[in-house]
């Protein structure tokens, strides 16, 4: 039941770590992904003190890492680290249809070009 | 070369909510900074971008890292040799709108 609660829209993976970096729970793309857990722990250590004048030490409440098609969100709460991997909405349908029409147009152009050479 | 960097930094500063911008090289040295940002941040910013690059080493496009703290956020992106660090600050602490504006 707890795991059902963890699922949020577009979630494709999650990790829950203890503050020492030990993996408590994991699922989806991040199932048993200790390598990612270690990288993120290294990132958290780096973000502890960036610039005390702008973001006070240890006051960073959330980190997001954005890629083209997915993103990670990292939150700290109650000495636990919650990492969720999200997929981004795919709008590839429109691009694929436009590319298919362009292929279609190219084919038409080739046909007209070949017919004109035949005519010539 | 510096003039081009200065121009880019000035353009970045004209975007809404931006308070400071900085560019760092591969060694973490500051190439240029504009606005309210400490040039010494270049080292830690570069270290963060290098650390994030380890998360998905096969990714072709660089990741954008955003650190949120109240109404402030720090955006870091590494592209090839250069790492960019931008400080942003909203008038009110609305995390939902800040994530949308990214």
TrEMBL record, chain A:
<protein>
    <recommendedName>
        <fullName>Late endosomal/lysosomal adaptor and MAPK and MTOR activator 4</fullName>
    </recommendedName>
</protein>
<dbReference type="InterPro" id="IPR034601">
    <property type="entry name" value="LAMTOR4"/>
</dbReference>
<keyword id="KW-0458">Lysosome</keyword>
<dbReference type="GO" id="GO:0005085">
    <property type="term" value="F:guanyl-nucleotide exchange factor activity"/>
</dbReference>
<dbReference type="GO" id="GO:0071986">
    <property type="term" value="C:Ragulator complex"/>
</dbReference>
<comment type="similarity">
    <text>Belongs to the LAMTOR4 family.</text>
</comment>
<dbReference type="GO" id="GO:0005764">
    <property type="term" value="C:lysosome"/>
</dbReference>
<dbReference type="GO" id="GO:0071230">
    <property type="term" value="P:cellular response to amino acid stimulus"/>
</dbReference>
<dbReference type="GO" id="GO:0032008">
    <property type="term" value="P:positive regulation of TOR signaling"/>
</dbReference>
UniProtKB/TrEMBL annotation, chain B:
<keyword id="KW-0963">Cytoplasm</keyword>
<protein>
    <recommendedName>
        <fullName>Late endosomal/lysosomal adaptor and MAPK and MTOR activator 5</fullName>
    </recommendedName>
</protein>
<keyword id="KW-0458">Lysosome</keyword>
<dbReference type="GO" id="GO:0071230">
    <property type="term" value="P:cellular response to amino acid stimulus"/>
</dbReference>
<dbReference type="GO" id="GO:0043066">
    <property type="term" value="P:negative regulation of apoptotic process"/>
</dbReference>
<dbReference type="GO" id="GO:0005085">
    <property type="term" value="F:guanyl-nucleotide exchange factor activity"/>
</dbReference>
<dbReference type="GO" id="GO:0005764">
    <property type="term" value="C:lysosome"/>
</dbReference>
<comment type="similarity">
    <text>Belongs to the LAMTOR5 family.</text>
</comment>
<dbReference type="GO" id="GO:1904263">
    <property type="term" value="P:positive regulation of TORC1 signaling"/>
</dbReference>
<dbReference type="InterPro" id="IPR024135">
    <property type="entry name" value="LAMTOR5"/>
</dbReference>
<dbReference type="Pfam" id="PF16672">
    <property type="entry name" value="LAMTOR5"/>
</dbReference>
<dbReference type="GO" id="GO:0071986">
    <property type="term" value="C:Ragulator complex"/>
</dbReference>
